[in-house]
Design brief:
Strand content: 15-25%
Low-confidence stretches: none
Helix content: 25-40%
Radius of gyration: 18 Å
Strand order of the largest sheet: 2-3-1-4
Structural class: alpha+beta
Largest sheet: 4 strands, antiparallel
Number of helices: 4
């Protein structure tokens, strides 16, 4: 199970309307807001792809200017990654292999530049580590 916090931004004029929409949309839990139009919510999902689907629902609410994940927690994923980390080398083998062309190494860390986040997350989740 993944749990992520999200900061939603709207303009103060629409704050009450957006808060009510978030409370009624059934994809998130509302926690608090301030007079500047910043709203704190959380979402839960079985994986990143499900969380991204919920984030799209939130982004589509009228008068939402931005909705950005701030923190994410996944106990299952953390445990799986810790097993890999504890059972492997601190540095990936490919980084110590002089026979691999550096141009073949792919950095996947910048989600904002991904055109299709759902496909990316499925591919990322299936990556052998």
């Amino acid at each position: 199970m993944n749990i992520s916090s999200i900061v939603v931004q709207t303009i103060p004029k629409y704050l009450n309307e957006v808060v009510e929409s978030l409370k009624n949309c059934e994809v998130c839990d509302y926690h608090m807001h301030d007079e500047k139009g910043r709203i704190i919510i959380t979402i839960e999902g079985e994986g990143v792809a499900q969380e991204l689907e919920k984030l799209k629902v939130i982004e589509a609410i009228p008068h939402v200017i931005a909705a950005d994940m701030q923190m994410s927690y996944s106990e299952d994923e953390l445990d799986a990654h810790m097993e890999v980390i504890n059972g492997g080398d601190a540095v990936p083998k490919m980084l110590n292999d002089d026979s691999i062309d550096a141009s073949r190494i792919v950095y996947n860390g910048d989600l904002k530049k991904k055109d299709d986040l759902v496909t990316f997350t499925k591919k990322f989740d299936e990556t052998k580590r």
